[in-house]
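Mos1 transposase HTH domain-containing protein
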Amino acid sequence: MNSSRSAQRAVIQFLRAEGKHASQIYRRMKEMYGEQYLARYTIFQWCQRYKAGRVNIKDLPRPGQAHAVTNSATISAVDELIRQNRLIITREVAVELWISKRTVRHIIHKKIGYDKDCAQWVPKHLSENQNTARMGVCLTQQFLH
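Structure:
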């Protein structure tokens, strides 16, 4: 059974159109969807909306900044800044590109796939050659100290 929110809202809308009360709809949803049913408050809220005449089961757009900042141009700009200076910090990238530090961190870690290692940005998943080279550098550093 499809337990997505929109599917459950459609069921609530249908049962509400049949004249069922919100508490009856809640019990029925609990039986039908098991542990994946919407919260009681949410079911009652949607019942009120459908009673008031709402017909759409989708969420209305909410105010706030859209996520248009995380586009391919921004991702490539962040990647280019990191490749130019591996020691750059997220605050400097954010100031340079006029985006939030949180967005910069999201792009670096999730979109590009870099991690901070010894104050430098490096790819999270290294190839076998890169792993061998890194191990060699670490061993020589260990012997020097």
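The CA atoms of residues 3 and 33 lie 7 Å apart.
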